[in-house]
Design brief:
The complex is a heterodimer. By secondary structure, chain A is mainly α. Chain A is built from five helices and no strands. In chain A, helix 1 (18-39) packs antiparallel against helix 2 (47-66). The radius of gyration of chain A is 30 Å and the shape is flat. In chain A, 15% of the residues are buried. The chains are: A mainly alpha, B mainly alpha. At the A-B interface, helix 1, helix 2, helix 3 and helix 5 of A face helix 2, helix 4 and helix 7 of B.
């Protein structure tokens, strides 16, 4: 508020001294060195927590002093703070879900995982399986079939069988 | 209602503490109102940016917890030195940007131009380092997903190593786009500074560009340890 030269009533102008900016910068440099140094020490599962804690201290310095949030209207801090809170809810609930699962290999639920043996369409047993296999064969022999919905269904059935096989081949 | 709108310029003129600025848009009553509206808009935009990157951070947390071995292996392919250099460059550019805003607040045109040029140069330096990192990885086949084919492979990779590089390229790529967007904004502000548009009464574009640039720095502060250091 010291630089109000009088010609304009700018209530928002808060000019921080250069010294403050340089001090914040020095602190950020020191914290960067700490980030790199701390990463050489193994804290086990706390590695991520320590790294993120240091990063959050750095981020707070940037937001408070470089972005002037400390001297800004409180409303801006509320607006930005709500964003951070919602990100926290988003991440917190997600980690809660991941951390409390009992599935020994949750990654199985993802399609990108290469399966040990190529998956083939269940052609054996069951009238339903035979029923679905029939249009697939029909499609190969006569691509220009009259009843269009049937070959389309056959195509859909074939697609998942082909892609995991291709994936395993690539990974081997 | 219409009467009120018609009266606005008159009221504005009556407020003698604020002479009419050529940069006052007609839909704002005063420079103060214009400045505050712009700044609040930027803060809300920054919230959306946090949430945009939040999705990527959430995905990273999920896949890291599922495949820690792949992520440990992946980060060994990254050059911590180059990442640290980029961190120093970006934090320094944040300092010069803050000083540029200060120069605008104190009507110091020479300093404003000087600091904006330094900030822009730092951004270029960041992208040059990024270019060398990217080209090195592309050359060695350290690519996302099924495109991963490390050419110096001795021991078999974790099958999920491609996931790590998908996150690496997506997160640094989106961040890189933000650096380019920030550079465009800085270039625009620099051009207007050269024309002498900014002083203590009008410097909203400098300040708002500064806010954006600091957010780009902020995101990198988290990306650097996550991608280069965490194991």
């Amino acid at each position: 508020m010291s630089t109000h030269a009088g010609d304009s009533g700018h209530s928002h102008v808060h000019v921080s001294p250069v010294r403050l900016y340089v001090a914040v910068w020095v602190a950020l440099m020191v914290l960067t060195a700490i980030t790199v140094g701390v990463a050489q020490v193994d804290f086990g599962a706390l590695n991520v927590v320590v790294a993120m804690a240091v990063a959050t201290v750095k981020a707070s310095l940037v937001v408070l002093f470089f972005m002037h949030l400390k001297y800004d209207k409180p409303f801006h801090a509320v607006a930005f703070g709500i964003g951070i809170v919602f990100f926290g809810i988003f991440l917190g609930l997600q980690l809660l879900d991941v951390g409390t699962r009992t599935d020994p290999e949750p990654a199985r639920n993802f399609a990108v995982i290469p399966t040990p043996t190529p998956w083939v369409a269940p052609a054996h047993g069951g009238a339903a399986a035979e029923h679905s296999a029939a249009p697939a064969g029909e499609k190969k022999e006569a691509p220009a079939a009259e009843h269009s919905p049937a070959p389309a269904a056959g195509e859909k059935k074939e697609a998942p069988a082909a892609s995991p096989a291709a994936k395993t081949a690539e990974h081997k | 209602m219409a009467q009120e709108i018609n009266r606005l310029p008159v009221t504005h003129g009556a407020h003698h503490e604020e002479e009419h600025s050529p940069f006052l848009q007609h839909h704002f009553a005063s420079m103060d109102q214009q400045f505050e509206a712009g700044k609040l808009g930027m803060w809300i935009f920054l919230v959306t940016e946090v949430l945009l990157f939040g999705g990527l951070f959430g995905g990273y947390a999920l896949m890291f917890s599922y495949h820690p071995a792949a992520f440990h292996e992946g980060h060994h392919h990254l050059d911590v030195k180059l990442g640290a250099i980029n961190t120093v460059i970006l934090i320094f550019s944040s300092l010069t940007m803050a000083l540029a805003v200060r120069a605008a607040q104190t009507s110091n045109k020479q300093a404003l131009i000087k600091y904006l040029i330094i900030t822009f140069a730092c951004a270029c330096g960041f992208l040059v380092v990024k270019y060398f990192e990217y080209s090195h990885k592309i050359h060695e086949g350290l690519l996302p997903g099924t495109y991963y084919h490390y050419i110096h492979q001795t021991t078999p990779s974790d099958p999920h190593i491609g996931t790590y590089f998908a996150f690496y390229f997506m997160m640094t790529g989106v961040h890189g786009l933000h650096v380019i967007a920030g550079m465009s904004a800085i270039a625009w502000v620099l051009w207007r500074s050269l024309k002498g548009h900014f002083d203590r009464n009008y410097h909203a574009p400098v300040e708002i560009t500064g806010l954006y640039w600091h957010l780009v720095d902020l995101i990198w502060i988290y990306l650097f340890p996550l991608l280069y250091l965490v194991r």
